[in-house]
Design brief:
The complex is a heterodimer of chains A (109) and B (480).
Chain A (H helix, E strand, L loop, with lengths): L18 H11 L5 H19 L22 E2 L9 H5 L5 E2 L2 E5 L4
Antiparallel strand pairs in A: 2-3
Chain B lengths: L3 E12 L36 E2 H13 L3 E2 L2 E2 L2 E4 L9 E4 L6 E10 L2 E14 L3 E5 L4 E5 L6 E7 L6 H18 L11 E11 L9 E4 L4 H20 L8 E5 L4 E4 L12 E2 L6 E2 L2 H9 L5 H12 L3 H7 L3 H14 L2 H18 L13 H10 L5 H14 L3 H7 L8 H14 L1 H8 L5 H12 L6 H14 L3
Parallel strand pairs in B: 13-14
Antiparallel strand pairs in B: 1-11, 1-12, 3-7, 4-17, 5-6, 5-16, 7-8, 8-11, 9-10, 12-13, 14-15
Helix pairs in contact in B: 2-3, 5-6, 7-8, 7-9, 9-10, 12-14, 12-15, 13-14, 14-15
Classes of the chains: A alpha+beta (109), B alpha+beta (480).
The structure holds zinc ion (ZN).
Chain lengths: 109, 480
């Protein structure tokens, strides 16, 4: 679902990542970090952001945002169903499966 | 009590009828065994790369042109990140910043008035998988067959003020997309899904009220109920001074109420960014021109032509052109029997009745397109009578029999030669003396009973006109 009101570039995040932001990111990514991991992740992410911040020193006035450094002709596929049924092979990659389906922790909307 | 106005916008997701998925060579067919159409690509495994299905762009442009949109010469794919088991890559590929079509419209007729509904944008995206909850095992089971099936999302402007307008729009959109051949638009199978954004404000107010989004309506009827239910909830809240929250809600058609969705939809922070693995889509003017030239006659033009060329009543033309599947049966029949009015009458009465009795949609019809025309020809040529024609058509509808075979095998050819009918008439007149004397006493209606008895004796195959003529002749002879 997309609304026009959602269409704005993400606001710049502060260069230093605090505990609150780590917890928010944990929620979004559905992972749980230990206290030590939280600290380390905050440190690493802050370093990464600082590094990227270097770009802020450049004058980008009048330069269009770039999404792809190299633009080639788009490569298309023809609309053909060429893949075989490889269900069993695909399910073997899952930690658990049941009744031909990928089994995951109960997730309700 | 203040008068309130409901303001709505609609987002329609339509699965495109491609043979394969959007970025891999897996089949996009509906209804197969769970996970039969899954590969490393659509299962979101690291190291796989997407390759765009050419037909997806073509179908999106077709839809855009038919809905009067500007086609973007440059469009691009973005990743919408969210973590949920129906999305194995943990992001959905969509087009946030540069959609393929913009600024279109669709004219609808509701409450007897024509109204132009603005279309804000159409963008391409991929569908997600399907989750089934297993209460026994306290887990969820995921089927990725639908994952990465191509979709277009058609986003309207907030131009709707009544459920009738919404239903008219969805019907028109469905007919148009079916004509274009870009989707089968089956709401029951989920290939067409509508989310309604709804807010309520006092009549005359310029400011929009708090907006909620409703999902999970599986039919037009349930959409109409959801709009009524949600409008009531908003008005109740406004009148009792409660605060409405902007949120996504799931409509429960059995309970007749909407419920806030817990986490998936209401913790929105999608961290959109351009997909580095997919090149922008550049479409040339020439390509757009070619697709425009290949567009079929759309419902509006077809309806006008049916009225003009065939002299059909507007109501009939409207119903017929409301579905390309009805159009297919009608046009083929009209072409074979060279009598569009008769063909239209049969579709409008017999076919709609058969569909209604079977609780079927026109797209679910299975019979050969030539059959109705063949039946109408047999009828005109006097090979069968009207009752047999109806019976044969019902049989065609039910099990796609060959109408000529069916009539021959069941001995249903019309009997119209005097030699075969006369002895039957004599027997009927002898056996029904009461009706005969009533007729002779001046009660002309009793001839209907005698016709019925004669047709029954002829096992329904008699030529009604010949039967009637011979009965009158026989009765006249008995006047004494
Ligand atoms: Zn695949």
């Amino acid at each position: 679902m997309i609304r026009m009101t959602d269409i704005h570039e993400a606001p710049p995040e502060p260069a230093s990542i605090g505990a609150e932001q780590i917890e928010y990111l944990e929620q979004l990514a559905r992972i749980r970090l230990s206290g030590e991991e939280k600290e380390r992740t905050a440190r690493d992410l802050s370093k990464i952001l600082d590094y990227i911040e270097m770009l802020g020193e450049l004058d980008t006035e009048g330069v269009d945002p770039l999404s792809h450094p190299v633009t080639t002709e788009p490569v298309f596929r023809e609309d053909k169903a060429v893949n075989d049924d490889r269900r069993d092979a695909m399910l073997r990659n899952a930690p658990e499966h049941k009744d031909g389906c990928f089994k995951v922790p109960k997730t309700v909307e | 009590m203040a008068n309130f106005e409901t303001v709505m916008g609609i987002e329609v997701h339509v699965e495109l009828s491609t043979k394969s998925k959007i970025f891999c060579g897996c089949s996009a067919r509906f209804g197969d065994e769970a996970n039969a159409h899954v590969c490393e690509g659509c299962a979101g495994m690291p190291g796989t790369l997407p390759t765009l299905n050419r037909r997806v762009v073509e179908y999106a442009v077709r839809a855009g042109l038919a809905l009067n949109c500007e086609i973007s010469r440059f469009s691009r794919f973005d990743r919408k990140s969210y973590f949920y088991p129906d999305l194995p890559a943990s992001y959905q590929v969509t087009q946030l910043y540069h959609p393929i079509c913009k600024n279109g419209h669709l004219d609808i007729v509701a409450d007897g008035k024509t109204k132009r509904i603005g279309i804000n944008r159409i963008h391409i995206e991929e569908d997600a998988g399907k989750l089934v909850h297993d209460d026994w095992d306290d887990c969820s089971l995921v089927d990725y067959n639908r994952c990465s099936v191509p979709l277009i999302e058609i986003v309207s402007e907030p131009d709707f003020r009544s459920a009738d307008e919404v239903v008219a729009y969805l019907e028109k959109l469905k007919a148009t997309l079916q004509y274009l051949g870009v989707s089968d638009c089956k709401m029951q199978e989920g290939s067409m899904r509508a989310d309604i954004n709804l807010s309520v404000r006092p009549v005359g107010s310029e400011k929009f009220g708090v907006r909620t989004e409703m999902k999970n309506m599986a039919s037009l009827k349930s959409i109409a109920r959801a709009i009524a239910g949600e409008t009531r909830r908003h008005i109740d809240a406004i009148e009792s001074g409660e605060t409405l929250i902007q949120e996504t809600r799931r409509w429960d058609d059995n309970k007749g109420f909407s419920f806030a969705m817990r986490n998936k939809e209401n913790a929105k922070d999608y961290k959109y960014f351009p997909d580095p693995n997919l090149m922008p889509v550049i479409v040339e003017e020439e390509y757009i021109r070619e697709i425009r030239a290949s567009l079929p006659e759309l419902p509006e033009e077809k309806k006008a032509r049916y009225i003009r060329e065939f002299g059909l009543p507007e109501y009939d033309a409207d119903i017929l052109t409301g579905s390309r599947y009805l159009v297919a049966v009608f046009e083929r029949a009209a072409d074979i029997c060279k009598n569009p009015k008769e063909a239209s009458n049969w579709v409008m009465t017999e076919l709609l009745k058969l569909l209604n009795d079977a609780q079927m949609q026109p797209e679910d019809m299975k019979f050969s397109p030539d059959s109705l025309g063949t039946i109408l020809n047999m009828l005109t040529e006097g090979k069968i009578n009207r009752a047999v024609a109806k019976k044969t058509f019902a049989e065609v509808f039910e099990s796609d029999v060959d109408p000529v075979d069916y009539v021959r095998k069941n001995g249903l050819m019309q009997v119209s030669d005097t030699g075969s009918i006369e002895p039957v008439i004599r027997e009927v007149l002898d056996a029904n003396r009461k009706a005969v004397s009533e007729y002779l006493a001046g009660n002309e209606k009793s001839i209907q009973f005698l016709i019925g008895q004669s047709m029954k004796a002829l096992r329904g195959k008699g030529d009604p006109q010949v039967v009637r003529d011979l009965l009158i002749k026989g009765l006249d002879e008995r006047k004494g």
